[in-house]
Amino acid sequence: MNISAILIFNCGSSSIKFALINPTTEQEYLKGIVECVGTDEASLTWSIKEDKNTELLNQCDYPKAINKIFDIIHQYTQCEIKAVGHRVVHGGEAFSKSIRINDDVIKAIEDNIALAPLHNPANLAGIKAVKQKYPDLAQVAVFDTAFHQTLTPKVYLYPLPYDYYQDYQIRVYGFHGISHRYVVAKAANIIDKPLQDCQFITAHLGNGASLSASIGGKSVDTTMGFTPLAGLMMGTRSGDIDPGIHAYLCEKTGKNIDEITAILNKQSGLLGVSGISMDMRSLNQAAKLGDERAQLAIEMFCFRLARMIGAMAVSLSKIDALIFTGGIGENDRDVRAQVLKQLKILGFKLDAAANQQSGKETHGRISTVNSNLALVIPTNEELLIAKDTAVLCK
Q1: Engineering a disulfide at 393: which of 45, 138, 148, 305 sits with its beta carbon 3.0 to 4.6 angstroms away?
Q2: What is the pLDDT of residue 40?
Q3: Is the pLDDT of residue 359 over 70?
Q4: 88 and 235 share a domain?
Q5: Residues 135, 198: one domain?
Q6: In terms of residue numbers, what domain contains 244?
Q7: Which of these is catalytic: 61, 136, 144, 258?
Q8: Annotated catalytic residue 144
Q9: What is the pLDDT of residue 360?
């Protein structure tokens, strides 16, 4: 007998991540990634439990790659695909929640391409490829920006001429909303408190990183802004800097504004300061061997993170929990320890023994019992997308 499941696609500019999930049992039947889409190095890697397989695809575009993924699912599982859920990076102001995809939704996503030129076209390519292969298969868009559509004007507006918001939609949109939304719901369950009564600060820390302050499961503040370049120091992104630096660097280096922006996005952050790597694991190793710039990069990351957590607290009347998630948040004990050490003013005290846990299979309290609560909660964006998709496709 076939098992009903939801297929999840996360289509990037050169990759397609996918997973096949039962949203009711939360079982993951298959997952994988197509890398280097459209190049000679294109490859498909998928796994079922511990069984991992890789296949070269060569010059494989999005439709061909997605067709191949469907073939793998039909060949290696007993699952019937009930619907497809897509992570869509940018919904602009058009979407405040997940939505079943139709032609109007596709048009609205296309209208937001200018706000996410590297992401929305890839998201659309996945949607259109599925529609071409299975026209009657239900599809759902789950937006990274939707969670933050509850921000109020005093938070989402920039202190620029108001016409720039009206004419060009320049405002704070926020990102990583799927992850922030998932972990606040999990945190409410962990502390056994209704979500509507909870106030959290969530720290999604990976190569990209952002904070969110939420009340009653709704975002009231966040660090990423008009673009994902804003906010925290990240793997290769600078995060917040003096905007005057753009013009100054253009003058001093002879580079144009696009080149400077590319440097801030791709050559800054942990990589730029350390000169070694954007990977926190590599920096930790280098720092332990005495590399001073690696140590400086880590200290800057932790300080700027702690400082912005303090800023998020301004939007709350209490802190039910500070939640660490994402690759760094879930696995880097030293970063968590440094950050909590700098948050004593907010009442956080580290439980060193509890903080030794890390990874996808562990989560829980890392603060002492007489401290404000700090939790580590592994994120699961794919599961949230699957659950939203199942609800909208009943």
Answers
A1: 138
A2: 87
A3: no
A4: no
A5: no
A6: 193-381
A7: 144
A8: yes
A9: 57
